[in-house]
Design a protein that fits this description.
By secondary structure, the chain is α/β, with parallel strands linked by helices. The chain folds into two domains: about 150 residues, Medium-chain alcohol dehydrogenases, catalytic domain (Quinone Oxidoreductase, Chain A, domain 1, Alpha-Beta Complex); about 140 residues, Quinone Oxidoreductase, Chain A, domain 1. The strands form three sheets. Strands 3, 4, 5, 6, 7, 14 and 15 form a seven-stranded mixed beta sheet that branches. α5 links the parallel β9 and β10. The relative contact order is 0.15. Keywords: NADP. GO terms for molecular function: oxidoreductase activity. It holds the Pfam family ADH_N.
């Protein structure tokens, strides 16, 4: 089969063996995959959890048809149209744990659309609802809201009863579109006054829950924008892995600062994350109430161009590979 693999000179398409599913796994004939920021790390030669270095297979999620299921997998059978988070998803076939796989809703959802959902749903339900402890009536701010995961985070917050949803983007065209996906207010995180605008939008209280995909230089501004007893969930570090941190402000506001990643989670933990997500969100997915725009699609053999498009940071929503 053909798969995107990191070679000495960059990402290339190679012929590799079709993976064999373990008893707890599902083998998928991939029809579409979507890009995530972590794929850029792997493409640059850096490590992302257990994946990295020359020979690494790229991709985190895909959609397609089930070819084979392991003996321990329940509720999924050969021929089912499915989507799921799947390592090595930039390929003609992929295997993944059966607990990460979901049947594609029978609502005319295409494989390209379905491939956009798995990582965004599981990441943002965990960040907003589980780690972020969202309560109906809370205010929510999503840093880096124009990414696919960010757009899903705003929609989940709104669906789960947030009173005010705020999204940030440094691009004015993308900020103008955040309202289409649940934002009541769109802010430019490069504007030094954005924390004051966020507090004003919450009646001066401050934001109850901030889901941060940027980190780096916005850590202190997040705390300025946060309410006393607010929660900040560190999901991504697009703005840098390190930055200044005002420990006194953190203590003064008694903020819960929570770090999350899938890199150190066990299969059992990921299955539970997906179980909780499905319980809260799947009816909305099936009804088409949660959606993600596709910015652009590329065939698998143009994976380098697709990654360059993401690296340029000019997209709104998801970038998709088709097989």
């Amino acid at each position: 089969m053909k798969a995107a693999v990191l070679g000495e000179a960059g990402v290339e398409i190679r012929d590799v063996p079709v993976p064999v599913p373990k008893p707890n796994e599902v083998l998928i004939k991939v029809r579409a995959s979507s890009l995530n920021r972590a794929d850029l790390l792997v493409a640059s030669g850096r490590q992302h959890g257990p994946v990295g270095g020359v020979g690494a297979r790229l991709g985190l999620e895909c959609a397609g048809e089930v070819v084979e299921v392991g003996a321990e997998v329940k509720g999924i059978k050969a021929g089912d149209r499915v989507m799921g988070s799947a390592p090595g998803g930039y390929a003609e076939y992929a295997v993944t744990d059966g607990g990460r796989v979901h049947k594609v809703p029978a609502n005319n959802m295409t494989f390209e659309q379905a491939a956009c959902y798995p990582v965004a749903l599981q990441t943002m339900h965990n960040a907003v609802v589980t780690a972020g402890r969202l309560k109906a009536g809370d205010s929510v701010l999503i840093q880096g809201a124009s990414s696919g995961v960010g757009l899903m985070g705003m929609q989940i917050a709104k669906l789960m009863g947030a009173s005010v949803v705020i999204g940030t983007s440094t691009n004015p065209q993308r900020r103008a579109r955040l309202a289409e996906h649940g934002a009541d207010l769109a802010l430019d995180s490069r504007d030094p006054a954005w924390p004051e605008a966020a507090r004003a939008a919450t009646g001066g209280k401050g934001v109850d829950l901030i889901v941060d995909q940027v980190s780096g230089g916005v850590a202190n501004q997040n705390m300025q924008a946060a309410a006393v007893l607010g929660r900040i969930v560190n999901v991504g570090r697009l703005g840098g892995m390190k930055g200044e941190f005002d420990f006194d402000l953190h203590a003064l506001k008694r903020i819960d600062y929570v770090g999350v990643t899938f890199r150190t989670r066990s299969p059992e933990e990921v299955r539970e994350i997906n179980r909780l997500m499905r319980a809260d969100l799947w009816p909305a997915v099936e009804a088409g109430r949660l959606s993600l725009p596709i910015d652009r699609s590329f065939p698998l053999d143009q994976v380098a161009e697709a990654l360059a498009h993401m690296r340029a940071n000019a997209h709104f929503g998801k970038i998709v590979l088709t097989m």
